[in-house]
Automatic annotation (TrEMBL):
UniProt keyword terms in alphabetical order: Hydrolase
Organism: Paraburkholderia solisilvae
One term of GO molecular function: asparaginase activity
PROSITE patterns: ASN_GLN_ASE_1, ASN_GLN_ASE_2, ASN_GLN_ASE_3
SUPFAM superfamilies reported for this sequence: Glutaminase/Asparaginase
Domain of life: Bacteria
Protein name as catalogued: L-asparaginase
Binding site for substrate: S75, T108, D109
Amino acid sequence: MNTSSSSSFSSAPPRVLSRIAVLATGGTIAGSAHDATRTAGYQAGVVGVAQLLAAVPALSTLANIHAEQVASIDSKDMSLALWTTLVQRVNALLATDAVDGIVITHGTDTLEETAYLLHLTVQSTKPVVLTAAMRPSTALSADGPLNLLNAVSVAANRAAHGQGVLVAFNNRIHSARDVVKTSTFAVDAFHSPEVGALGWVQDERVEFLRGVLRPHTVSTGLTIEPVAADGWPMVEIVASYAGATRLQVDALVQAGVRGIVVAGTGNGSMHVSLQQALADALARGVAVVRASRVGSGHVMHNGAAPDDALGFVTANSLNPYKARVLLMLALAAGHAGPAELQRAFDLF
C-alpha cells in the first residue's frame, strides 16, 4: 500500500473564515444569577463579551471574531443615545474590508425595536444578525450559547447578504421588520406572526426559505444624524381602551411631542375621546399614526374618516413600537405631511 498518496487528500488549502464582529450590549444573554435553577431574579448585562465567546469554543471554527463591548445594560433601559452609538459603530465597521458581517448580542425586551432601527439605517448589504437569550448565562440549559453560535453561523453565510438585518433565535432566522417577542418566559419567544420565519439554522447549516421584499438598509435613504437623545424627534405611544380619555394626548402636546403612535383596538380603532384629542393634536402639527395593540394583522388606511378626513397615517403591519421607530426616522428625515408619512409606512 502506497501511504504517500494519502497525504494528498489532506493537503487542501484551509478554509478561509469570515471575519465577524460581535458587538455586545448586555441583556439576559449576559445575565448572571446566584442560583442556577433560577431564570428570573438575575442581573442582566454583567457578563462581558469575552466570557460569552469563551462559552462557545466552536466559534473559532466558524469565523475570525472581533469582539467589542458597546454597552452592558438591561435592554429595557435602551436609550436613543445608545441607538445612535450602535448604528454609527455598525456602519463604521461594515464600511471596512476587515469585517464581513456583524452579530449583536442584545436583551430580548427591546430587541425587535433595535433590530428594526438597524434594518432601516444600516448602510451595507453585509449581514447584521441580532441574537439574545431568555435564560441568563448561569442558568441550567442556558439558551444563549447556542443562539450565539447560530447567529455567527448566519452572519458568516453568503445567503445572509442582502437580506437586511436579521434575528437568529431558537434555530429560526427572522427579518427585523417582522419579528416580535411573543412570550415572557419561553425559549421560543420570538416569532414573525404575519409571514413566518425567513429560514432556519442548525448545526452550522443555514437555510433561507424566502427573501425580504420590502426595502431595507441601503435602499431606505434613512440615516441617523443626532449625536444624543435630544437630537431625536420626540415620538410617544398612547393606547386606546375602554374609558380612555384625552389626558395623555393633551399632556404630550403640551410637552412638545412631534409624533404620536396610538395602539388602537382591533384595526387601529380608538375611543371617541382619544380620537378627538389626536385630531386636535394633528391640527397643531403633531403627526399621528394608527397602529394596533393586537398581536398580528394589518391596520389598513381608511379613505374616509378618520384617516384622510383627519390626516391620520396607518402603520400597515408594524406594531406600535416599530411604528414609533419609523415615525422618528421619517420625521428626522423631514417627512412631515400625512401623505409623505403614509408613503413611508406603505414602503417600509
